[in-house]
Every structure is written in C-alpha cells, then in structure tokens.
Design a protein that fits this description.
Strands 1-4-5-8 form a four-stranded mixed β-sheet. The termini are far apart. The chain has about 375 residues and is an alpha+beta fold.
C-alpha cells in the first residue's frame, strides 16, 4: 500500500482524508491495466467511476480532490487515471464558463458516465502555443461553421462531446479564439486517424470540415477562448503532477518490495549502501513532488485568481521527478524491470508522456521564468 502519511499535511481537510479512503476502496476493486481493446476498457472504467460516484469530482473542481483522485488512480494504473481525468478536462470549460442550459444538458450525463468528453485544443502546428491555433469558426444564419484539424486529442474516437477551440477573429493571436461544444455526431466532424502510442489510450486526429455547431454551442463570449483554455488548464495542470506522483509512489513501493525480497551476495538487496542511497533519492523526489503538487492545489482551492507559476512548477517537477524515480525502479529491478507487462516496465511507458502533454517541460520552464520576470519588474526590480 502506498504511503498515506502526507494526508496529515496542513494542505488537507477531513473531507480530503475521507475521499482518500473512498478512493482506496475503489482502487482495491480494480485489477491491473490489461492489454486489449483500449476503447472498451476506457468506456468500462468511466462507467465504474460513475457507479462509484467519483465522477462528481469532475464538476466540483476542488483541485486537491482531483489531485488525490489522479494520484490514487495512477498508482493503480494509467487507464483508470486517464478515464477519470478526461471527464474533468473535457467538461471543465462548460463547468467554469458554460450557460445554465449547457451545464444542465451536458454535466449530469458526464457525472453519470453516459457522456464521454474530450478537450480539443492541440493542432498539427499548435500545441503548447495556443495563440497559433488555425482552426476557424465563422458565424452563419443558424450558428457556427468550423473548419480545421485537431490532433493528439485524448478520447478522440470514443468521445460523445468535444470542447473545441477555434479562431473567431475578434483580435489577433490569442485574443481572437473562442470555445465551442461540438458533439461527435455533428455534421462535418470526422475522426481521420487513431494514434498509437507507447502507453495505449484512445487518441485521435479529428477534422472539422464545414462542421456545423448551433448558436448555443458557443461557450462564454466570443473571443474568450484563450481565457477559458488557461482557466481550465490552471485547474487541471497540477493534476498531471498528481498522476506522475501516483506513478512514482508505485515505482518506489515496487522497488522497496524488490529490495526486501531479492538477495544479492548473501543478503537482501536493500542492505547494499548504494541501493539505500538510491531508495533515499527516490523517496525525496516523491515527497518534493507531493509538496509542490498539493501546494498548487491548495492555493487554487484557497481562492487564488491564477496559479500559473505554482501549477507550472508542480507539473514540471513532478513529471520530471517521476521519470527519474521510475527509471531508478527499472534499474534496481534488473532484467525483470524490462520484462513486458511487469509493473515497472508498464510505469516506464506510462510516465513518459506526462513530460509532454498539457505543456511540455520546456514550456513550463518558459512559463515559470516569464512569471518570475514579470513579478520582479512589478516590484520595481532593475
């Protein structure tokens, strides 16, 4: 069982500790991720999360709760975390900025697991640079017509509803973007490619070819898309760090078990000083990541208008640290660690993408540095 002593930290309230118990019971009922039909597995996981009442967290948007959920689910496996996270990210713009009609039409189905959501921001030439989005949305008599290509879309191909960001042209660059609710059966929406990656999950390219969206499909005001995207990512970016934390905790626990059971030179592996040093480094990485993740979540829940720097720090450090922890776990497992479907081999494949999606590590460094420089200038620094 993963270490739970961090739940005593002052970031958490009793309701978070109760949630941790609820999550532990749910995860105990899940088996490990299995190879096979990933689409069917994700649909089944969404249904199980809904049955357990855990998809309510997608609407409440208490960031500490979201982080606890992602950490617990990622500890159990990559797909349970993925299925949970995408329901929240995909519906986050509607929860934060949608009209009452949009919320009532979409969110109850999200919580009940009847509607699978996707967040369609990235494009072939616009990933971390949201201002470079080329997909267009033009008004017509009945609503909007969208044209463009979205790629690397998680839940692409199985989603019932996409939150799509497109250029409406109110101003240059990021100020001319808007957000839309686009249902999978909308005329002109085509899934043109399913993308296979090293840790399989539903991922696709979608093409919007004269895709018609009714007038009430617009989320918020025209031109508010960049603000909507950033606000949504401010909530969910720390949760990526939490998923990384779950992977790292599992890697550390697998390694502790290995170091205790495996004998080398007549004694347990864990008695070697070089192994003890590596275990200590892994534990420090885990705790440091947890502190940054839950600081960002606590700050957001506490009413901070923006937690851009805190979220970027949490995402950057936790994902990079998790990569190091998992790599160390593979190394200390020896040949067993690279055996297909071994827990640490699976972790090695799962953790790698976290350093890329929702803003690559290098982009987080830029975000942090720019925030620091702006704050320094605001204080009158020379």
């Amino acid at each position: 069982m993963a270490d739970r002593s961090f739940l005593g930290w002052p970031f958490f309230e009793d309701r978070h500790r109760a949630l941790a118990d609820e999550l532990a019971r749910f995860c105990d009922g899940l088996g490990p991720d299995e190879d096979g039909d990933v689409d069917a597995a994700c649909r089944a996981l969404v249904a199980r999360l809904a049955e357990a009442g855990l998809l309510r967290l997608s609407l409440e948007l208490d960031v500490r709760s979201l982080c606890l959920a992602r950490e617990s689910l990622a500890y159990r496996g990559g797909l349970p975390d993925f299925a949970f996270a995408m329901q929240g990210l995909g519906s986050g713009a509607v929860t934060l900025f949608g009209t009452e009609e949009q919320r009532s039409a979409i969110l109850p189905d999200v919580v009940a697991g009847r509607r699978i959501m996707a967040f369609a921001l990235s494009e072939p030439e616009a990933g971390s640079d949201v201002a470079a989005i080329a997909t267009t949305a033009r008004p017509d008599r009945d609503g909007w017509v969208l044209d463009g290509t979205k790629t690397w879309i998680s839940n692409g191909g199985i989603a019932d509803t996409y939150t799509v960001f497109a250029r409406t042209g109110e101003a240059p660059g990021s100020r001319g973007l808007s957000a839309f609710v686009v249902h999978a059966d909308a005329p002109g929406l085509h899934v043109t490619e399913r993308i296979d990656v090293i840790a399989p999950h539903p991922l696709a390219t979608i093409v919007l070819d004269g895709c018609r969206v009714p007038r009430d499909g617009l989320i918020g005001e025209p031109g508010a898309g960049f603000k909507i995207a950033l606000a949504t990512l401010d909530v969910f970016r720390p949760t990526v760090g939490a998923a990384a934390l779950g992977f790292a905790r599992r890697a550390l626990d697998e390694t502790l078990a290995r170091a205790t059971a495996r004998r080398l030179f007549g004694a347990p592996l864990g008695e070697l000083e070089i192994v003890q040093g590596k275990l200590a480094e892994m534990a420090v990485e885990v705790d440091a990541a947890a502190l940054l993740v839950y600081r960002a979540a606590w700050a957001k829940d506490g009413g901070a208008d923006r937690v851009t720097r805190e979220a970027a720090m949490a995402k950057l450090f936790a994902t990079e640290a998790a990569q190091r922890v998992v790599d160390a776990a593979v190394q200390l497992h020896g040949g067993t660690g690279v055996r297909s479907r071994h827990p640490v081999e699976r972790l090695y494949r799962e953790v790698r993408a976290l350093r890329i999606y929702e803003g690559a590590s290098e982009v987080q460094q830029v975000v942090i540095a720019r925030d620091l420089l702006a704050a320094h200038a605001g204080r009158g620094g020379g």
